[in-house]
Amino acid sequence: MLRIALAQMRVMPGRPDRNTETMLKYIANARKQNADLVIFPEMAIPGYLLGDTWEQTSFLEECEACSDEIIAASKGIAVMFGNVAVDWAKKNNDGRVRKYNAFFTAQDGRLVAPEESPYPFVVKTLLPNYREFDDTRHFFSLQKLARELGVAAENLLSPIRLAVNGTTYAVGGLLCEDGWSDDYGLSPMKIICEKERPDFFVNISSSPYTLGKNNKRRRVFSGRAAEAGAPLLYVNNVGIQNNGKTVYTFDGANAAYDAHGVLRLSGAPYEETTQVFDLETLPERKPVTIPDEPEAAQIFRALSYGVRLFLETIGMKRVVVGVSGGIDSAVAAALYARVLPPENLLLVNMPSIYNSETTKGLARRLADNLGCRYTTVPIQPSVELTVEQLENATIENLFDGTTEHFNISSFMAENIQARDRFSRILAGLAAAFGGGFTCNANKAETTVGYSTLYGDQSGFLSALADLWKYQVYDLARYLNETVYNREVIPQETIDIVPSAELSDAQDVDKGQGDPLHYPYHDYLFRSFVERWQKATPQDILEWYADDALEKEIGCAPGLVAKYFPTPKDFIADLERWWNQFSGLAVAKRIQAPPILAVSRRAFGFDHRESQNGPYYTKKYKALKAKLLGE
Amino acid sequence: MLRIALAQMRVMPGRPDRNTETMLKYIANARKQNADLVIFPEMAIPGYLLGDTWEQTSFLEECEACSDEIIAASKGIAVMFGNVAVDWAKKNNDGRVRKYNAFFTAQDGRLVAPEESPYPFVVKTLLPNYREFDDTRHFFSLQKLARELGVAAENLLSPIRLAVNGTTYAVGGLLCEDGWSDDYGLSPMKIICEKERPDFFVNISSSPYTLGKNNKRRRVFSGRAAEAGAPLLYVNNVGIQNNGKTVYTFDGANAAYDAHGVLRLSGAPYEETTQVFDLETLPERKPVTIPDEPEAAQIFRALSYGVRLFLETIGMKRVVVGVSGGIDSAVAAALYARVLPPENLLLVNMPSIYNSETTKGLARRLADNLGCRYTTVPIQPSVELTVEQLENATIENLFDGTTEHFNISSFMAENIQARDRFSRILAGLAAAFGGGFTCNANKAETTVGYSTLYGDQSGFLSALADLWKYQVYDLARYLNETVYNREVIPQETIDIVPSAELSDAQDVDKGQGDPLHYPYHDYLFRSFVERWQKATPQDILEWYADDALEKEIGCAPGLVAKYFPTPKDFIADLERWWNQFSGLAVAKRIQAPPILAVSRRAFGFDHRESQNGPYYTKKYKALKAKLLGE
User: Fold this and answer.
1) Do B381 and A377 lie within an 8 Å CB cutoff?
2) B423 vs A454: CB contact, 8 Å cut-off?
């Protein structure tokens, strides 16, 4: 019998000391449960998303020393774990020391080497270099190693032989992407199977959560196990890790599939937990079925987990949320109120003359419902002082001795209000409260920069900036109906027209609001950002001309005709937002706070962009001319 | 005879239409000069640093259509150029359509295929994935292609045969990194030479400028030509390109080396120009020697070029610089004054009660010297209003019905001042002036976040944030002595103690200033960021213990003993700044403006980082305990 413990541990990125401590505890617990083998995730010791920390020699040495501790702790138990492996005698292609993303197996105080590997560990074969992943920047792949050694990659892949209780098990060791081989033209699992079908496969991963990803993982790994005809054990970490601009939650979701690909064991998402089982009786366990959940439930779990751990990571205990009475700030406040005790959450309403009694009242009701701290700081006196100071400032033209004065337009005054609220009031209050203030921008606003830099585009974290507006509404309803089970977000906040309330033209009581038709623009913008091959005005206009637009972008039918009576209206709207998306919005995103990722394409490190301005192809221009009858 | 034109063209990233137009003009000019062959840089059509624009199908189609235009324009002349090449039938490892970074040769309206290439173009063999480069994210390498085809990469490399005036020339076509093969274990040049020494090599590049890089290019390519025993022509673009957070200038610096590696022809840095010569008489030309220049001259050229083109790229014509009387803002103002007409530059002094008459006078003198626009807007009334509003705000504790008030400390008031200046005054004035305002932070401040977010850390561009403080001083002297040839930056600004003047404790008239000892900290911080293997407190403390620190980090001898009488003082300083560098400074950099790169390691896309907090290794802790006698 082989008793196995899958350690769904929390990995702290950049903290080999703490991760090693955690692993030693899991090993001790596994021993208590009479496990013969305990399996940890990929990069369990260093963490995975570390930027260029991999270029610090001392950090690499520390990771090696931690490996030694884990190896020493493997007396009487086998331990599989991920860590960086360094070959100090060789170089990467960038000229720096050679590093591998490696899968170690330790037993009785020494490493168990895979038979045909040139190193006493498994080298990751497939290195992802898309989305938020950067593996090829730092790690040397098995293929490159094979080329260097003058052999085929196939020669270097082989099972690990693990002797336990008198039986020797052949184990196929895989690192994360090694199991996602469809687009690589090389499958480590197939190569190993062609040599000898292992008794089981182990895939150690460090795989961030995004919406729907766990379903995909199950489809892929269930299929792989069935193909191989061998059980497959999937071990992933929990916790959060970030690439600076983008913060990812890791949901763990460990899994054990039998040789037919049936899921027999599953780790609860985001929990620090261990799954212990006997390999031989795995097929006898009841199949696990994971119930479908509404999207909002998944989003709430990911966001609340992410916010809680992000606050912990940066050591922030208190949070200020500017609340306008509108939907985004209300959802942000209700989210933070689930993560923080009420005395650590301060809501602030900052009215100007343009804010209606309606929204001021809604902000107050939200605070009452949440029972946290609340204050009101009007911005009118300061905004008036600013406009007056700027208009009264004498500009001396030193080149000709003349002087002049500037005029502050109503558009400029809108931005002055937004900056006054965030950079003056919220930043000051947050410091006085001993915490930070939140950015409540959603993904639609973030896409087109419908926000003010150093105003509502600022904050320590954008928890909602990977949610389209409809997802913000869904989350609001879910918070009321399920999380709180009462109306914490006032229904009027959900029903009212979304508005920035920065001028007379944005009067919510007259139903005047944002220039965005969210039921359409949410989907248009999604096609710019999240579509597999990103859409541009050329694609959009071709679909429009073919009457296929609503179907292609996924919005409700009839909206295009409703919002845009003529091609001219349609094109003006398209170009307006494409210009923003590729223009000023890029500049704003460069200076935006970190974003908590939930979609399969969040802004930041997973959506790399340059400040190059909008582009229209020749095909676009020709089609536009045709549609406009030019 | 083969007459060759090296086109040192300006490439506009993301503008295939404009680049194609430019290339057609260069081709027409080359024809007028009776050239037989005109050579353009790598990725001449699309540009190189484009983020994830490569995922837009319509953009790829547009680039292909532009290729066709160039091919059609090659009647009677051969044209070599870089572009993206798409194989619509195949996939990259990320599952998206197959893309190559490709070298095309066109002649008489059709492509000239390299003999052994599976495509009618050269596929880039070595794809850099370090520093600011991201090639492997988007492009498929020749090695991967070879593996897919089941052959060695060697089999796919061969010369291009170009028939001109009755002679057939064998040309070795290389793309940028293909010539920098030292760390790859595979040299495209050697492979080609082993088959048949070409008549000449062509390296088309898109190679950003950084300090000292052109010297390195010359060393490398002169060596390569001599090794190969064949002339080597190097063609690079000018212009600027950015990765969002980091803006790079491209200096061109085209070069023709003869078969002995002697430089015979060289393009002036940053100029749009063409070098025309006859291949056969290249060795008869006078060798080119490039005179050594002071670092400040190079920095000034790169920054003024970068600033000018960045303004052009984002369509900004007017700039506001907040001037304190200190060195950084004075250098920024003097730099912008060389790029903009005086009426488009507005300097603003924003005194509080802590600003001395000395620095206020220096700010005014700077403006007088530059003869631009100038104004003064005091921040005292607004700062007082803010402190009063924040302290008077009644915080309602809705969980227990009590109320309270916050207290604004003097440290909080410092940040309020900084935000007031930038987010309130400068942002408002810039909008009214129809432009943007600058961030004047230097690299030392940026490293440790000695700045206020939404305060002096804000702006549309950080032109000085890749310069250590000593480089800012050098640039100040260079501006006065050489660029302006008169004292535009007042000598007192250069001589005065650097100070933020945000409190009584920072009184310049008493010689009180920043908490940084720049002559030491510049070099300490550089070791954290720019050192080949990045230094951490462990390295620093080991060097300190070995009395090797000043030598290792490159600062003047004696400074460590002068600033830090005891190990305790030394360690306290080290930890203070390491905590900042790995902590709050990361958060500030995430929201910082784009940085104009000049060093070999600028913050941003070339210094990837995660918000994970500071780390101290076990070796560090042990050595610290030993030094402190614990």
Assistant:
1) no
2) yes
Rounded CA separation A138/A14 (Å):
15
Judge contact between B594 and A589, C-beta under 8 A.
no
Q: What's the number of domains chain B is made of?
A: 3
A183-198 pLDDT, tens digit each: 998 999 999 999 999 9
C-alpha distances (whole Å) from B391 to each of A246, A518, B404, B618 are 35, 39, 10, 45
SS3 B311: helix
- Look up residue B147 and give its two tokens: 């593996």
Asked if B243 and B341 sit in the same domain, the reply is no
pTM: predicted TM-score of the whole model, two decimal places: 0.97
Whether residue A399 and residue B148 make contact (CB cut-off 8 A), yes or no, is no
Q: How many CB atoms lie within 10 A of CB B400?
A: 10
**pLDDT tens-digit profile of B105-147?**
999 999 999 989 999 999 999 999 999 999 999 999 999 999 9
**CB proximity list for A172: less than 8 A, separation 6 or greater:** A159, A160, A188, A189, A192, A193, A198, A200, A201, A202, A228, A230
Helices (H) and strands (E) in chain A, counts: 23, 22
A289 domain-assigned: no
CA distance A383 to A585: 25
Helices (H), ranges, A496-617:
518-529, 537-545, 549-553, 559-563, 567-582, 584-590
Asked casually if ipTM beats, i.e. exceeds, 0.85, the reply is: yes
Under 8 Å between Cβ of B272 and B8? yes
Whose tokens are 């413990």? That residue is A5
Task: Give the residue numbers spanning the domain of B543.
Answer: 517-630
B55 to A534: CB separation less than 8 angstroms, yes or no:
yes
Q: Same domain, yes or no, for A306 and A398?
A: yes
CA distance B603 to B466: 7
Nearest CA in chain A to B138: A130
Are A120 and A149 contained in the same domain? Answer: yes
Helices A57-72 + B618-627 axis angle, to 10: 100
Residue B414 DSSP SS3:
helix
Nearest to B560 by CA among B539, B543, B576: B543
Instruction: For residue B79, list its beta bridge partners.
Output: B38, B106
Shortest CB distance from B416 goes to which of A148, A428, A587?
A: A428
How far B86 CA sits from the closest chain A CA (Å)? 14
Q: What DSSP character marks residue A78?
A: E
